Amino acid sequence: MFATLLKQIGTLIISLLGLTVLTFILSLQSDTPVHTYQSNSVFIQYFEYLQFLLDGNWGTSSIHKRSVLKDFLQHFPATIELILLAMVLAVTAGLGLGIVASTRRGGWLDNTLMTSSLIGYSMPIFWWGMLLVLLFSLTLGWTPVAGRIDFAYDIEPYTRFMLIDTLLHHNQYGFSAFLNALHHLVLPAITLSTIPMAIVARMTRSSLLAVLKSEYIRTARSKGISNQRIIWVHALRNALQPILTISGVQISIIMSGVIITEYIFAWPGIGKWLLEAVSRRDFASIQGGVLALSIIVIAFNLALDFISIYLNPRLRRPS
Amino acid sequence: MIKKSNENNDLMINSSLYRDLSRRARLLISLAALACCSCAPSDNEKADDAKDLLVYCSEGSPDGFNPQLVTSGTSYDATANIIYNQLVTYKPGTTEIAPSLAKSWHISDDGLRYTFNLRDDITFHGSQIFTPSRSMNADDVIFSFNRQRLSSHPYHGISGGRYPYFTAQSMGQLIKDIRKTGEHQVEFILTRPESPFLSILATPFASILSAEYAQQLNRLHRPEWIDSKPIGTGPFRFERYEPDAYIRYKRFDNYFNQSKRVKNLVFAITPDAAMRFARFSAGECDVMSYPLPVHLRVAQKNDLKVVQTPGLNVAYWAFNTEKPPFHDAKVRRALTMAIDREAILQTVYDRQATLATNPIPPSSWAYNKNIQKVTYSKRRATELLAEAGYANGFSIDIWAMPIQRAYNPNARKMAEMIQQDLADINVDARIITYEWGTFLSRLAQGLHHSVLLGWNADNADPNNFFSPLLSCNSAISGNNYAKWCNNQFDDLILKGRTSAAQSDRTEYYLKAQEVFKREAPWLTIAHANNSVLIQPEISGLTVSPIGNINFEGVTIHEGKSKPAETKERQ
Questions:
Q1: Does the keyword Signal apply (chain B) (predicted)?
Q2: How far out from the chain centre does Cα B445 lie?
């Protein structure tokens, strides 16, 4: 197990170094230098660049004259909030739909659910988001068009997680601010969760169907255990392993999805910040943002690997 | 029926904050709220405060909160008329100079000394780190200008030490000295007479900052906060800025002009015009900035309120007079005749603009009404080209700006229309566009044949058009993209700038416009209207011809109740 962990950490370090090389090359190409290097040698400059990163000096935005790292950390909680809700939605709804479809295999419900998930999977996210805004916000008036909360609530950003901050303002607004913030989250989270939800649903269905065919389920059936118990207790636990893996892989899909979703809903997170940096040619922000997002994706995948290793003893031996 | 009990009232006000919810959504939320209402006491006063709120959907994030350091209209809107005041201002919606922090002023006969008598009842805003101990006085005025003027000033180098507008207007060379002649009196001594000086002092860069606040920040060793945690004298005080999301202001109750104002003002930063319109349509904002022509059409169809004022701006097609064939005035005149500007007005501006005859708009006091409009005639254009020796035509480039501006909503479309018109007179035009920064730097190098651009004045003096756009000096290193240097014209606008009497100035400028028309360095295209969309309950909002939006005096009618509240109170 120790060797496997070591290998994973080695992979992480190589990925991170590769990433910093790429962003370093990008920084050399920009008209406005992000950092001032002492040396003329590009090789030594790269090490200076690494030193800057480790010191927390990620450059200064050429437009706003603010620290890139500070900007990133300011926008990050909004993105995390959105991603977490979208993930919860995707996993719970995806699992539920997948289970229902697998138990009704071949029936009209199965066909309908799988066709819908295929549509959900293939729908371009910007189009889907705009359709939802048009229907639920502009036509029906059920959801807000944009933003994180109604401006009637004056919420001091203590943690920058709106749901937490509104609860910290409980004395002032009761729970109505929290509910309002939740209300603002609904549509962006649905938009962002649609593709992962479809993937989880399809994966759950096929994984469950495969498990349900296995010998031990047949044995359980022969013992007269109820269908409900077979699915929820015996089959699902084993079917979860590939679902967990596929959910982890989706972090990069979610990350690219969140950029578009934030733009559609004027959600003040990393995605909107990065897109605006691109439109303003703010190289320091682009470079810092891309680096930070990539580190998060790599770290998330690594964490998931560790969880899988912990759950599945067979993975502990390096191949 | 209005419920009387306090507890019910609390609940009702809380729910009244909740706008635009469907019955079903409200039902769900009410159920959830009911489940926890026992632990949710609220403060009536705060909730009422929150209701007195104006949301302005603005087009972008400000570059900073000190108008001395920035130049964009977006930054000016968020600072100059909200947080700060200048010595003089424009009467709302006009270009007429009016007193502001200075109650009166006197100009010496030689035009070299401007003495301002300051009001003695002006208070600066307070914040958690600053409580003003005195009213505004001459020291604050001197601090505000000397910071920009003197490189030896302790605050000069703070936040980069660049003062773009101050430098662009050559204020450093113009102002010889600023003296305190009394506790509430200050004198500006100029190196030469400069008639537009008062207009220039009404520009955002001339906002008055607090010298006492600067001292306080020095004590805290955080001088840079003067630019990021602004303290001014304006109608609203800055409360919070969430980058790219919103700016929150609170009404300043000790403001010297006790005009009606809302208690809370929020700039909801929404750069995408379609998104701004969606938010406006859904009632999430009360005022929408920079609507596109299509939004104005929809708004007019749906009886939404549009506040519109003819803009102090001009859109033009400049010919690079340093390059053949544009060095020949005959060719330039021929090309101006070949373009169907009425069609451009219809297609590009959706009629939200007027046809431009002169480089300055008709609202300016120096406008020459006697200049003949260019008549659209392809036949005459072809004849003129033949006379100039170009009977077989030629090829040119048209540079179209890549971004949308109030004076030109779609330069690319405009370029395409011009291209078609030119093809009819045997002129082959190629359209060129670069990213905005590259576009401007290449223009400055004079790499273009011709360019579609425009200008939005930042003060109401006609010199603000002539000198920066058409003088010989600006042809070398300025915004004169026609690279046009005409000695007669230059002489006239210099006289216009340095004469004291407005009648003399008018005479010079009228003549200058005649020279401009004869020489045709540009085809003047349009003066676009400045517009904002407002909800029907809003009143008192003015948009100045310069394009600034002013929230002083804006009120929300009593009738403005959010849907939930109306229902509850019935």
A1: yes
A2: 27
CA dihedral B541, B544, B548, B552 (to 10 degrees): -40
pLDDT of residue B266: 96
Bridge partners, residue A53, by sequence:
none
Q: What is the pLDDT of residues B259-288, one digit of tens each?
A: 889 999 999 998 888 899 999 999 999 999
Structure tokens at B239: 């409360």
B10 neighbourhood in chain A, CB within 8 Å: 174
Q: In chain B, which residues have their Cβ closer than 8 Å to the Cβ of A64?
A: 61, 63-64, 243
Nearest to A150 among B17, B41, B244 (CB): B17
With contact defined as beta carbons under 8 Å apart, do A89 and A95 qualify? Answer: no
CB contact under 8 A, B437 and A281: yes
Select the residue from A132, A175, A184, A263 to test the B interface by mutation, using most B Cβ atoms within 10 A: A175
B470: nearest Cα among B423, B519, B437: B519
Do B122 and B256 contact (CB within 8 A), yes or no?
A: yes
The pLDDT, as a whole number, for residue B523 is 96
CB-based contact, B109 to chain A, within 8 Å: no
Give long-range contacts, CB 8 A cutoff, 24+ apart: B390-394. Answer: B390/B325, B390/B331, B392/B426, B393/B425, B393/B426, B393/B427, B393/B428, B394/B325, B394/B427, B394/B428
Q: Does residue A144 or residue B404 have the better pLDDT? A: A144
Under DSSP, the state recorded for A232 is I
Q: How much is the pTM?
A: 0.83
A148 touches B: beta carbon within 8 Å? yes
Cα separation of A66 and B217, whole Å?
Answer: 19
What's the pLDDT tens digit per position in A117-136?
Answer: 888 888 899 999 999 999 99
Contact A64 B243 (CB under 8 A): yes
Instruction: Report the b/e string of B372-399 with b at 16+ CB within 10 A.
Output: eebebeeeebbebbeebebeeeeebbbb
Whole-Å CA distances, B252 to A172, B137, B496, B553: 22, 19, 41, 13
Encode A171-187: b = buried (16+ Cβ within 10 Å), e = exposed: ebbbbbbbbbbbbbbbb
Residue B38: closest C-alpha in chain A: A174
Question: What radius of gyration do chain A's Cα atoms show?
Answer: 23
Across A134-142, average pLDDT: 93
Residues A148, B20: Cα–Cα separation, whole Å: 15
Alpha helices in B203-321 (DSSP H): 211-219, 225-228, 273-281, 293-301
Do B246 and A151 lie within an 8 Å CB cutoff? yes
Q: Are B390 and B344 in contact (CB under 8 A)?
A: no
pLDDT value at residue B473: 85
A232 CB within 8 Å of a chain B CB: no
B297 and A CB contact within 8 Å = no
**Do B349 and B362 touch, CB atoms closer than 8 A?**
no
Condensed to tens digits (0 to 9), the pLDDT of residues A54-75 reads 888 888 887 777 889 999 999 9
Count CB atoms within 10 A of the CB of residue B367: 18
Question: Residue B80 in contact with residue B101, Cβ under 8 Å?
Answer: no
